[in-house]
Design brief:
Helix content is 74%, strand content 0%. By secondary structure, the protein is an all-alpha fold. The longest helix is centred in the N-terminal third of the chain and has 41 residues. The radius of gyration is 22 Å and the shape is elongated.
Length: 185
């Protein structure tokens, strides 16, 4: 089960990275097109005028997808902002209890957000909500990536909660040890 979950979280990170690559490719293509137009104008040729319609809107959808898809992997890697100094000041039992409670609250909140994000996707799909840009995009698709990212985060938080209950440690604890006072260098 551990291998399956780790692969699931890694898949989510790869999907986030692909969204960022897509943004870079689209923006690079737009910038290159404008540079080519400028060169062609200087040479007295007809500009190519290659414009990527609704680039800002599409890049926004891709960025939202990347942000939400990366949440679980970032949590597992210890990249989320946490109160490590406070936790390091607590005893082992108190730290374990506080960490479990915080993870439980996070899982509940993330689960709540996941449920409502899925409802938003469902409503957008049923009512056939379309973006208002030049390129029409059915809003259920970008919303689904946000809902999926929240689902993966919820699973990661529950996974961490179970790990704390069973072992008293988190998967991101080693990364935090390096920044806590008295931690390893």
């Amino acid at each position: 089960m551990r291998l399956l979950l780790d692969r699931f979280f890694a898949l989510s990170l790869w999907l986030a990275a692909l969204n960022l690559v897509a943004i870079a490719v689209l923006v690079g293509a737009q910038v290159s097109s404008r540079a080519l137009d400028k060169i062609m104008t200087w040479l007295g040729l007809q500009p190519f005028s290659g414009v990527i319609l609704s680039l800002a809107e599409i890049a926004g959808y891709l960025l939202a997808a990347a942000s939400f898809l990366a949440l679980a992997g970032t949590l597992k890697a210890g990249g989320h902002v946490r109160m490590t100094m406070l936790l390091s000041a607590l005893g082992e039992t108190a730290r374990r209890r506080v960490e479990f409670c915080v993870l439980a609250i996070g899982a509940l909140f993330s689960g709540f957000m996941t449920y409502h994000a899925c409802r938003l996707v469902q409503d957008s799909w049923i009512h056939n909500e379309i973006s208002k840009g030049i390129v029409l995009v059915q809003l259920a698709y970008p919303q689904a990536t946000v809902a999926f990212g929240l689902l993966v985060l919820t699973i990661a938080l529950v996974d961490e909660m179970v790990l704390v209950a069973r072992t008293g440690k988190t998967t991101f604890g080693q990364a935090e040890q390096q920044i806590m006072p008295g931690g390893k260098e």
